[in-house]
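ARCHIVE CARD
Drawer: 12
Card no.: 0347
Subject: one protein chain, sequence and derived structure
Cross-reference: see card 0346
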Amino acid sequence: MDDRVVDRLLGVPPFRAMDHAAFPDRLPLRSLLANDTRVLNFKQGDLIIREGEYGDSAYLMLHGAGRIALDALEEVADNAPQKKSGRLARAVARLWNAPLAREVRSRPRGERSARRLGVRGSGDHPTFFLQDIPRVISDCYTLPIQPGEVFGELGALTRSPRSASVFAESDSVVLEIRWQGLRDLMRYSPEMKRHVERAYRENSLRVHLRETPLLAHLSEEQLAEVANATQFVTHGAFDWHSELLAEKPGDLFARVEREPVVAEEGTLPEGLLLLRSGFGRVSQRRGDGHQTVLYIGKGAVFGACALAHGVRTGQTPTLPLSLRAVGYLDVLLIPTRVFQEVIAPALPAEELDALVKQYERQHCAAETGLPARTLDFLVDRRLVNGEQTMVIDLDRCTRCDDCVRACAATHDGNPRFVRQGPIHDHFQYANACMHCVDPVCMIGCPTGAIHRDLESGVVKINDPTCIGCSTCANSCPYHNIRMVEARTPAGAVLSDDAGLPIIKATKCDLCGDQPTGPACQHACPHDALTRVSVAAGAPLAEFLGADTPAAPSGGTA
């Protein structure tokens, strides 16, 4: 961004009111705007944000006007709902119509969508737009966005799917702020920090608190008091997947030491920590190193038993375990005073006693049932992110490749996974899509082709809207997405109007069209292969043959 544009940005709110002296010399406000923002122009009706997509940017309306559509635009705009056949019918049709060549596609046509969404532009960055704005405004519940308003910040900070679509009501100029820039603006500008936190408090915080079992006994008044005192804290790197791709195997102790410390063993707890997104390593000192006790994720609670012990005994407690951010961790901090005065008195006596007993055992976390070295392996390779990880018992596997052939038979003759991947003990974690808790592959997809099905949780690729840009494949730190050349029924490579090969992204879709589920798992004659949630913990421990049942990653410590 050139200096003239930066000068204009510094003259508009909220940047005009920011104190330049509050920003460090190494990161002045001018430099932040030049490197972490860009100006985008949208025509009337253009979609700025699409509901359900993942992104790592927030937006500021500079000129024009926008609207937040709180109803699903596709549902409103689709006049003729299409019938969807059952799984069995789709499976039979796929088998009957199986092509002889691999990855057969038809040449893209400019067919008009039944939905009132048009496409402007081509290449890696097409723009979707509404073709009937007055009808959308009349049929949808929408909220206006005026110049100077920031939107999309919650989805960017928590890496959660966008909760609503935003479109340009008139020709508009919008400033896109990358996550790194938004983070620094919140760090050095109290106004921006207050704006983002106020939006979260108003829209999402009470729901999050109410869904936390430890707070389920609070009244509405008590919940409001807790919400008003809650602080927002972020640790680690938001783009952890890039670091993982570049990271080389090294000393485990050194890697643990590099992880940001959220709460340290032996210190006084600042308060109750609620994990909002990301993953954390819970560890205990063992000699000169650290032993991983547990990994926890979204929905988990840390510090509860130490605080409960302090309430019951009147003593000043210290933390028996440490919590570190594995890549990225976003937490809500409820101060100790609020726990003592509001939360603890509302807890049933038996729940408080259980927390105190955990602290007295000096092991304030649920056992996973997995050996420490297995936990270290899973955490260090971020496999704890997996919801449907393919795990193969190599002692049972005979390398017959029935799993690969079954996958190919249900996916245009080309398997959607590779029977290779990291190995620990005699178990292989194969290169198949894990349908992650934090699906970083979705970030940056220009068409929204890669998305999560809200009903099943499966991460899917909509083949007709995939433009083959490879953004998802390059973002996946597990190498589980592959780009393939589309072909004609005769097997020739399909080319576009410019004569270039048409490329498509492919990955495991958990055989959503099959009534029996994943074909790979059901084809294995030796039960050597399973799809399991590493994030949940217990199913993996059972398959690995652990002696005790594992605790889920979302628990209380």
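Annotation on reverse: The domain at 3-77+123-188 is CATH 2.60.120.10 (Jelly Rolls). The chain has a mean pLDDT of 82.
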